Amino acid sequence: MGRAWNFSAGPAALPLAVLERAQRELLDWGGSGSSVMEQSHRGKRFIAMAEQAEADLRELLAVPEDYAVLFLQGGATQHFAQIPMNLAGQGERADYVITGHWSEKAASEAAPYVKVNIAASNRADDYRQVPARDGWQLDPGAAYVHVVANETIHGVEFHDIPTAGDVPVVVDMSSNILSGPLDVGRYGLIYAGAQKNIGPSGLVVMIVRRDLLERAGRPMAKIFRYAAHAAQGSMLNTPNTWGWYLAGLTFEWLKAQGGLAAMAARNEAKAGQLYAAIDGSGGYYRNPIDPASRSRMNVPFTLHDTALDALFLQESEAAGLLALKGHKAVGGMRASLYNAVPPEAVEALVAFMRDFATRHG
Ligand SMILES: *Cc1c(COP(=O)(O)O)cnc(C)c1O
Fold first, then answer.
1. Which of 72, 80, 102, 197 to mutate to test the pocket of ligand 1 (most atoms within 8 A of CB)?
2. Predicted pLDDT of residue 2
3. Which of 180, 258, 279, 319 is the Cys-Cys partner for 264 at CB 3.0 to 4.6 Å?
């Protein structure tokens, strides 16, 4: 098999052009005689690349000056714990909005460090829609409000991430950052594990309003303190140099695609095509999510007869359509349509699904 269409939820597809460039540069990066992975992060060449990556990300998202951009490690999961350590003092409270698996996890990982208030939850509704903002029970004294912008497993997305007055909103955007334009200035802290829509795993990108870095948080080692990372340009210790480099190539690629408005249009069209195929299948395929909350990035769907699941997976893989098996928490199938998944991949998937339905009616 050559390069197949990859619908993996994460680690996910990377843009082909990015992989090809990394391949070309692997043995001799920019005439340096070694790969990017074999050089000091304190060297001139690496620092210049790192600064360019940050500048490109700032340009793509129009990040305001009073926000720091950090390139961290630990995965989004580590930051579920590290965010309350930094943003909440001992005994303080924080609001959590529950929309699916990852917000449940964020709340439970935060619980040792902050008094978690569940401000809203769609669990009783099987996570089929985001809870309407006017029903949130917000605590005006909360240190922050935590929201997951896109639930990667349940396929539920905020199409307009709410704000909460003076209380800063902390947003996990692991699976939809850079999928379209975003008004960064409305939020306190945005973070994303890289392996869905930015680069390889092992890197976390964080955009944080600088005044939040001045919060004392709780006593902790310096390595956990975001302010210390910001003060050292994310080089408090050795960063994920390979991840940072690939993220930089992805940012460059996004700019060449026309930026995030162009990506948003492309992503809308891709998701629209797949949802239309599901909804138009006469019940052969189903997506349970309220159309107003459907994710543009992760599309879970079931077959009308679960006895066909194994055959669907076997035939789709043979047709060069990878990683369509749904998460075990929801079953069925899931197609992840991140930036690096081209429209042709979705066309191939939709054609396969129609053909499968005809052959196994
Ligand atoms: C994948 C994912 C995570 C977990 O990321 P790790 O890097 O594995 O810790 C958290 N939140 C969301 C929304 C995700 O999609």
1. 102
2. 81
3. 180
Report percent pLDDT > 70 for the chain. 100
In the 8-state DSSP scheme, what is residue 326? P
Contact 156, 99 (CB under 8 A): yes
What residue spans of the chain are helical by DSSP H?
A: 16-25, 44-61, 75-87, 101-110, 226-231, 241-256, 259-279, 309-318, 343-359
Q: Say how far apart CA 39 and CA 305 lie, in whole Å.
A: 53
Among 228, 260, 245, 248, CA closest to 68 = 228
| Atom from ligand 1 closest to the CA of residue 193 | 7
Would you please indicate which residues are annotated as catalytic (active-site) residues? 102, 172, 196
Q: Which of 154, 174, 198, 201 to mutate to test the pocket of ligand 1 (most atoms within 8 A of CB)?
A: 174
Write down the pLDDT at residue 40: 98
| Whole-number pLDDT of residue 156 | 98
- Which residue ranges of the chain lie beneath pLDDT 50? none
Partner residues linked to 207 by β-bridges: 69, 190
pTM: 0.98
The reply to whether ligand 1 has any atom less than 6 angstroms from the CB of 76 is: yes
> Which atom of ligand 1 approaches the CA of 201 most closely?
7
pLDDT of the residue at 361: 86
Ligand 1 within 6 A of 77 CB? yes
Q: What are the structural domains, with CATH classification, of the chain?
A: 17-256 (3.40.640.10), 259-359 (3.90.1150.10)
The residue nearest atom 7 of ligand 1, judged by CA position, is 75
Q: How far is the CA of 46 from the centre of ligand 1 (A)?
A: 27
What is the CA(320)–ligand 1 centre distance, in A?
Answer: 26
Q: Which of 292, 269, 260, 250 is nearest to 346 (CA)?
A: 269
List phi, psi (to 5°) of 182. Answer: -145, 140
Q: Which residue's entry shows tokens 């460090």?
A: 113
Confidence (pLDDT) at 286: 98
What pLDDT, on a 0 to 100 scale, did the predictor assign at position 1? 63
- Counting from 1 in the atom list of ligand 1, the atom nearest the Cα of 10 is 1
Nearest to 201 by CA among 247, 168, 133: 247
Which letter, b or e, does each residue of 20-30 get, where b requires 16 or more Cβ atoms within 10 Å of its Cβ? eebeebeeebe
